[in-house]
Amino acid sequence: MLSAKNACRTALNFLDIENRTKIQFCPSPIILQDITTKLDALKQDDKGKTGSEWKAGQQKEFFLASMKNSISTIHVDTGGGVTWVLILTGRKIWYFPRHVSSRTIRWLAQAGSQTLENYGDWVKVELRRGDLFIMPPTFPHAVFTPEDCLAVGGQIYTAGKLGHSIEGLRLQEDHPHISNEDLADSVYSTLARVLSDCGPVTTSFEKSQIVSSLSLFPKFTDPTTYDKHSKDSLMDILKSRGVVIPPKAKKNQLLELLQKNCSTRVACTPREEFLEAFWKLCDKFIADST
């Protein structure tokens, strides 16, 4: 499939080719679990009626084109989403730890993507044409391609896993190298919208799972008290504003960056919009529960 003109015989592995074919591969049961699809449906009063113009939003999908013997070392997918992969042709073999927790992710951050030890038992799943594989948020896995393969996939956020998504997002922020992709602004924008509007499509238990991550994203205080913050806290504030932090920056340098940022910034970043939506949801849930 991919090897005809590959004179150097390198095992090419393209993992994020945007699907622009206008053909939607995502199975309907997955689309219907997508929380953004549910929120869109709430806004259309005539959904399901004769003459309704309502259509489910187009899902963002990506193709994975991999040559025989290509390998993806241990990683998690970006953004804390639920990932689905459908094999169109060829085969792929997925490897993942039998038991996964936040400690598993921290071990990945510590040990690196090529260390197999200390994960416990590994599970091997071979995927063939027509097979669909779904992974929960921030799920460590490695992939081997035994023959040329073309697959398609995507990510969604679900009500039942939203708490895990928020926790996974923070883990990726703290340890960017656990994923083979950077966190995009679109991740924060999507989560900001989801957290702002998810009330009608989430249960009290599902909201509690989101709120359980409140300590991972502490609220920022009055700028005049920044000098009392820890270095880690200052870095988190700067990160939320999209400020590039110099390697090995000292606390006084971080305070100078914050002072400069406060005097020049004119708009919220997508991460700040996400934080505002997250804090607002947490405050409302806590108030309603007491």
Task: Write out key terms for the chains shown.
290 residues; alpha+beta; single chain; 7 strands; seven-stranded antiparallel β-sheet
Offer a quick outline of the entry.
The protein is of the alpha+beta class.
How would you describe the overall organization of this protein?
With 290 residues, the protein is α+β, with helices and mostly antiparallel strands. The protein contains 9 helices and 7 strands. The protein has helices at 28-33, 35-42, 102-111, 162-174, 185-197, 204-211, 231-240, 251-264, 270-289, and strands at 13-18, 61-66, 71-75, 82-97, 122-127, 132-135, 141-156. Strands 1, 2, 3, 4, 5, 6 and 7 form a 7-stranded antiparallel β-sheet that branches. α4 packs parallel to α6 (204-211). The longest helix has 20 residues, at 270-289. It is globular and about 60 Å long. The chain starts with 12 loop residues before the first strand and ends with a helix. The model has no long low-confidence stretch (mean pLDDT 88).
